[in-house]
Amino acid sequence: MATGWKNTTLKYGWLSISLHWIMLLLIVATYTAMDIKSIFPKGSSGREVIAIWHYTFGLSVFCLVWLRLLARLAGQVPAVQPALPALQAQLAKVVHLALYALMIGLPLLGWLTLSARGKPVPFFGAELPALVDKSQDAAKWLKEIHESLATAGYFLIGLHVAAALYHHFVKRDNTLKLMLPWR
């Protein structure tokens, strides 16, 4: 594990590395809960429990992404060695920006959707306040946007993983090694 919490030009700090992998687990758990919810009949207690876990995992991502952004702003971004071509570096920035937008936007849209439905927004036993007034029309289009972005998330996450594996096994640079907890 990295020795300092802060990122440097040579390596990510333990805070960024830990948040990266914890958030990966939370995102996988969020998507898994969303996918297995349909196993249970509508209105069943099993479906409701899975939905609550989906909301809780998603809102956990929303909370942690802000800490992750602060950690990123507090330090440097380690340099990939050998350096990436300019276009590849720009594409990496765009994908990272899109992933951050997803980690903020999806949970926020979920919170807005529940608020517009007039439903409670559960988070570890607490109930978060509604962000908007009840509106079935707004709830419908917020849910559609949320689901469309969640589908796009599969593509973005897959692209991120494929790029990390490409850099590690084909380019043989340090991209993946920089984010591994053991180095």
UniProtKB/TrEMBL annotation:
Domain Cytochrome b561 bacterial/Ni-hydrogenase: start-end pairs: 12-181
The entry's localization annotation reads: Cell membrane
Biological process annotations from GO: respiratory electron transport chain
Q: Check the record and name the InterPro entries matching this protein.
A: Cyt_b561_bac/Ni-Hgenase, Cytochrome_b561_oxidase, Di-haem_cyt_TM
A GO term for molecular function? metal ion binding
Q: Name one Pfam family in it.
A: Ni_hydr_CYTB
Q: Please report the record's description of how this protein sits within the membrane.
A: Multi-pass membrane protein
The cross-references to SUPFAM superfamilies, in alphabetical order and at most eight, read: Transmembrane di-heme cytochromes
Q: Which residues cross the membrane?
A: 12-32, 52-71, 91-114, 149-169
UniProt keyword terms in alphabetical order: Cell membrane, Electron transport, Heme, Iron, Membrane, Metal-binding, Transmembrane, Transmembrane helix, Transport
Single GO cellular component term: plasma membrane
Q: Where mainly located?
A: membrane
Cite the PANTHER family for this sequence: CYTOCHROME B561 (PTHR30529), CYTOCHROME B561 HOMOLOG 1 (PTHR30529:SF3)
Family the entry assigns: Belongs to the cytochrome b561 family.
Q: What is this protein called?
A: Cytochrome b561 bacterial/Ni-hydrogenase domain-containing protein
